[in-house]
Amino acid sequence: MTDTIDTPDRSNASSQELTTALVQRKLSWEELLGLMRAPKESSRFEETIVAHQQLVDWDEQILLPLGENLYIVAKDGKAIVKTRAGAELGPWDGNWKMQCRVIVRRTRADLLELYPEDQLTIDSDLIEIREFLCPISGTLLDVDCVPPTFPVEVDFTPDLAAFYRDWLGRELPVSV
Q: Smaller CB count within 10 Å for the chain: N or C?
C-alpha cells in the first residue's frame, strides 16, 4: 500500500500561478524539480515580485527580495529595506541588521537551546550565534555565527541600479 498526497493539478496553471505556488511553498517536490529543470520564463522576476507583493499587507513596491521575509522596497522615491511584517530597517545599502532585535547566544547553555548536547561542537569561547529578528513580528531574518566582538555585517548589498539596468533592461524606479 502506498500513501498518496493530494496535490492540485497544475498542468494547466499559468506561469504566474506556478511562480506564486513556488513563493508560497505550495509545490510538491516533483513540481519543484520540474520547475527547476525547465527553461525559465522571461517574466519570472516580475511574477516573483507579484507573488511576494501578495504576501505583504503594505503598499510599497517591492524592488528586490533580500530573503524570505526581507525586501528592498520603493518608498518616497528612495529604496529602503522592509520586513514582511512592515518594519522599516533603513536605507537599502545600509546595515539593516542594526535595526533588528537580536538574540546573542554566547554560552554553552545558550547554545544547548539550539543543539542537542551530543551534537554541540561549537566552542562558546570562540564563537557566538546572533539571531536577527523583525522588530515587529519577531520573525527570524538572519543568523550569524561569528567570533565574539566581530562587527555586525550584512551578507551582501546588491547593485540595485545595475541589476535593473543590465539584467532587467529598465530603469530603477527610485533614486539610489
A: N
